[in-house]
Amino acid sequence: MIEDTETIDEFLGRHAGDVEEAVRKAAAAEVMPRFRRLAAHEVDQKGGPHDLVTDADRLAERYLTEVLGALLPGSVVVGEEAVHADPASYEALQGDTPVWIVDPVDGTRQFVHGDPGFCMLVALARSGVLLASWTYAPARDQLATAIRGRGAFLDGERLHAGAPDPGRDLRVATSHPDYTTEDQKRGLLGLWTDGVAPRPCGSAGLEYLAVARGELDAVAFSWEAAWDHAAGQLLVEEAGGAHLTLTGEPFRITGGNTLPFTAARDAATARRVRGLLAGGA
User: Is the Hydrolase keyword given for this protein (predicted)?
Assistant: First the structure.
């Protein structure tokens, strides 16, 4: 059992590569063999026609749960599909036990439709603090990693989010309308204004990566499921970005955030987007 943050740092120093290997093996064994080859019986609906789950989601999460739990004895896994089956398991995020936060296929709709714009997300947290993350886009063979205090990297190259070009419209990816309620849509209305170019998001993990790379200025989301945000939030932070909720506080993966929230390339952009969201609320 891990006793303090220092020993978690030591664990990451020894085993960050093992986590990467586990994610790649899960992709090779369970995800990519089904990409563009899914049979009808391998796809189900959870909450509606846009909320899909596949055998790849379930089996990749099962694989990662077994490997990551064995890699860090005493840790627990909070995975999207396991929480769907047992909502109480989400409460592990509130404790001081190390938690692996797993989204086995982020962008399931894209995956189902044969679009390469999906990824696999893993983050390690303790007591609500994000410590490390892995964002793997297997159809593109891109891996982004971040360790708190050590920077963010894409395929070994350090990421710097930078700042938007002065005078250019802010490029902001927002919660997709297919996944938002009318109240949530109203909460995002402040972004439809001069100087902002909003668009619906695809895979949340890949949108965060685009912010960390400086290809997208910000995201604005109206839901707080940790598996969608944990890996990307740390990636953006370590690339020099920032995140804020509607009240101006940083986003908490443990929940209870005032929504919507934003993550942006730099603190000034996060404040600007947060102000627009507050004005539209």
Answer: yes
